[in-house]
Amino acid sequence: MAKEKQSVDFAFGRINYILMLSGIGLILLGFILMAGGGTKDPAVFSEEIFSFRRITLAPLLVLSGFVLEIYAIVKKSKD
Length: 79
Prior knowledge:
The protein has one domain. Helix content is 56%, strand content 0%. The chain has 2 helices and no strands. Helix 1 (14-34) packs antiparallel against helix 2 (52-74).
């Protein structure tokens, strides 16, 4: 009896998974950049929380990560 090779069809192709992992990486990087900026003493206010990195750059990275995730899901695989 000859063994027949069964093909397994995955929902996504290799490029889709690579794009999804890249999107997760962007989201995590954005949240890491948003962290911090506090002070040890709650009575002291720190202007560091209003830096460009926390107010502009990090949210843009998170948003672009979510857009990349949506694109990775919608992209038609050639496999």
